[in-house]
C-alpha cells in the first residue's frame, strides 16, 4: 500500500508544481487586482498540499516521528512569514514571497529526505534570517544615507575576503568559511551596494577605473581562495551594472575579454581549475578522482527520467556533497526532470520580477541595486544547475534557498528583503506620480474654469 501511495504521490506533487509554475507567470500578466489576489491565495494552497504530500511520503517510508515535528515547525514558519509581511508591509510583493516559500519548501523536502538534522538546522537559520529580514524593507525606505557609504562597503568586503584567504582552512579544495560563516555570501550584497553607490553619482572614466580596481580586488582574492563560483558571480554583477550605468558596449566587450583572459591564466596557474575543467570535459576518464561527482550526478539525473523515482526511492546520497552543490541532481532523480524544469522556471520568474522592479524604479541607486542583486541570483542558479548537469565546469556554489548552507540561505533571504523594500519604494513612486498627475489635472481644470468665468 505504501509503495502505491509513493508512486501516486510523485504525480500529484508534479501536478501541483506545474500549476504553481503556471501561476507564477500568469499572475504577473493579470491586471485585475481581485483576480491577482485570488491567484496568489491559490499559490499558497498549492504549496501547502505539495508539502503535505511530500512529508506524508517521507514519514511513511521512514516512520520517523521527527519528520512530523519538522513539518509542523515548517508550516508555522511559513504561516508566520506570510502573516507578518501582510501586517507590516501591505504593499509588498506577495508573488516574491510565495516564490521564496516554494523554493524553501523544495529544499526542506529534499533535505528532510536526506538528513533530518540538516533540515532542522536549515529551518532555524531560515527563521532567524526571516526575522532579521522583516526590518530591512523599512530600512531601505527610511535610511537615505545608505547611498553615501560607498567606500565603507568596499573596505568591509575586501577586509573580510582577505581574512578568509589568510585565516580560513581549506575545505573541498577552497577557502570558504571563517568560524562557520561564509563571508562571501554577505559580501555579495555589500559589493552591489558599493558599485551602485559609485555609479549612481557618476559614470565617467575615472569612476569606471575606481570601480574596476575594487571589483578586481574582490574577484582576485576569491580566485586565490579558490572560490571560483563566487568570483564568477561578482564579476557578472559588476559587468551588468557597469554596462547599465555607462551604456557603453566597449566597456562590456573589454570586461568579457578581460574575464576570458583571466580564465585562461587561471587555468594554467591553478591546478584545481585544470582538475574541474578535466572533470567537465570527460568525467568518465577521471571517474575515480575528480570526475566522480559529475558522473554520479549524471547517473542520478538519467535515472530519474521525466517523472522521477519518487521520494525515498532513489540513491541521491551516493553523490558527494549532495546537500550543498548537487541537490538539483537529487531533485531530478526523485521528483523528475519535469519537476526540475518547473523549478528552473520558478527561479526565472524570480529573476524577471526583480528585473521588472529595477526597470520601473526611477532612482538610479536603487535601480542598480535591484539589477546587481538580480544578476547575482540568476548567475548563482546558472552555475549550480549548469555544473550539476555538466553544462559548465562545476564551481561549487549552492542553489539559492534550496541547497543546504546557512550563509547562502541567510544572504538570499536578506537579498529578497532588500528587493521587497525596493518594490515598496517603486509602489511609493507610482503613488506619488499619480498624486502629482491628479494635482496637475485639478490645476488645469481650475484654470479653465477661471478662464470661462472671466469670459462670461
TrEMBL record:
It is a multi-pass membrane protein. It is found in: Membrane. Its main location: membrane. The chain crosses the membrane at residues 12-28, 40-59, 65-85, 92-111, 123-140, 149-168, 180-199, 211-244, 250-270, 291-309, 338-359, 368-389, 401-425. Keywords: Cell cycle, Cell division, Cell shape, Membrane, Transmembrane, Transmembrane helix. GO terms for biological process: cell division. It comes from the Bacteria. InterPro entries: FtsW/RodA. This is Cell division protein FtsW (Lipid II flippase). It comes from Blautia caecimuris.
Amino acid at each position: 500500500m505504501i509503495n502505491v501511495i509513493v508512486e501516486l504521490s510523485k504525480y500529484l506533487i508534479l501536478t501541483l508544481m506545474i500549476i504553481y509554475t503556471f501561476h507564477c507567470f500568469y499572475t504577473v500578466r493579470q491586471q485585475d487586482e481581485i483576480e491577482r489576489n485570488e491567484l496568489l491565495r491559490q499559490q499558497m494552497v498549492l504549496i501547502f498540499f505539495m508539502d503535505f504530500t511530500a512529508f506524508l511520503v517521507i514519514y511513511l517510508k521512514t516512520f520517523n516521528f521527527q519528520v512530523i515535528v519538522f513539518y509542523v515547525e515548517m508550516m508555522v514558519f511559513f504561516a508566520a512569514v506570510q502573516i507578518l509581511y501582510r501586517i507590516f508591509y501591505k504593499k509588498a510583493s506577495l508573488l516574491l514571497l510565495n516564490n521564496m516559500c516554494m523554493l524553501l519548501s523544495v529544499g526542506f523536502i529534499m533535505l528532510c529526505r536526506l538528513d533530518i538534522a540538516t533540515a532542522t538546522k536549515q529551518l532555524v537559520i531560515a527563521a532567524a534570517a526571516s526575522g532579521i529580514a522583516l526590518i530591512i524593507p523599512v530600512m531601505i525606505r527610511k535610511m537615505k544615507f545608505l547611498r553615501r557609504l560607498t567606500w565603507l562597503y568596499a573596505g568591509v568586503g575586501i577586509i573580510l575576503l582577505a581574512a578568509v584567504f589568510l585565516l580560513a582552512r581549506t575545505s573541498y579544495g577552497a577557502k570558504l568559511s571563517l568560524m562557520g560563516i561564509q563571508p562571501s555570501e554577505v559580501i555579495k550584497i555589500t559589493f552591489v551596494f558599493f558599485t551602485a553607490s559609485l555609479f549612481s553619482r557618476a559614470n565617467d572614466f575615472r569612476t569606471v577605473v575606481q570601480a574596476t580596481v575594487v571589483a578586481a580586488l574582490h574577484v582576485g582574492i576569491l580566485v586565490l581562495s579558490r572560490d571560483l563560483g563566487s568570483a564568477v558571480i561578482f564579476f557578472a554583477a559588476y559587468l551588468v551594472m557597469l554596462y547599465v550605468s555607462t551604456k557603453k558596449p566597449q566597456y562590456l566587450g573589454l570586461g568579457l575579454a578581460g574575464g576570458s583572459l583571466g580564465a585562461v591564466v587561471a587555468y594554467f596557474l591553478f591546478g584545481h581549475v585544470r582538475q574541474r575543467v578535466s572533470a567537465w570535459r570527460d568525467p568518465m576518464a577521471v571517474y575515480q578522482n575528480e570526475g566522480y561527482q559529475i558522473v554520479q550526478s549524471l547517473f542520478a539525473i538519467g535515472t530519474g527520467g521525466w517523472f522521477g523515482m519518487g521520494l525515498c526511492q532513489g540513491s541521491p546520497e551516493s553523490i558527494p556533497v549532495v546537500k550543498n552543490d548537487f541537490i538539483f541532481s537529487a531533485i531530478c532523480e526523485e521528483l523528475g526532470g519535469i519537476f526540475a524544469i518547473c523549478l528552473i522556471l520558478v527561479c526565472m520568474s524570480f529573476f524577471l520580477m526583480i528585473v521588472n522592479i529595477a526597470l520601473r524604479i526611477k532612482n538610479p541607486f536603487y535601480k542598480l541595486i535591484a539589477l546587481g542583486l538580480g544578476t547575482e541570483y540568476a548567475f548563482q542558479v546558472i552555475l549550480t544547475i549548469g555544473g550539476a548537469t555538466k553544462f559548465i565546469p562545476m564551481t561549487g556554489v549552492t542553489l539559492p534557498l534550496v541547497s543546504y548552507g546557512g550563509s547562502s540561505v541567510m544572504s538570499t533571504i536578506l537579498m529578497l528583503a532588500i528587493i521587497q523594500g525596493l518594490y515598496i519604494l517603486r509602489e511609493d513612486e507610482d503613488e506619488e506620480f499619480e498624486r502629482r498627475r491628479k494635482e496637475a489635472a485639478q490645476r488645469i481644470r481650475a484654470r479653465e474654469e477661471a478662464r470661462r468665468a472671466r469670459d462670461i
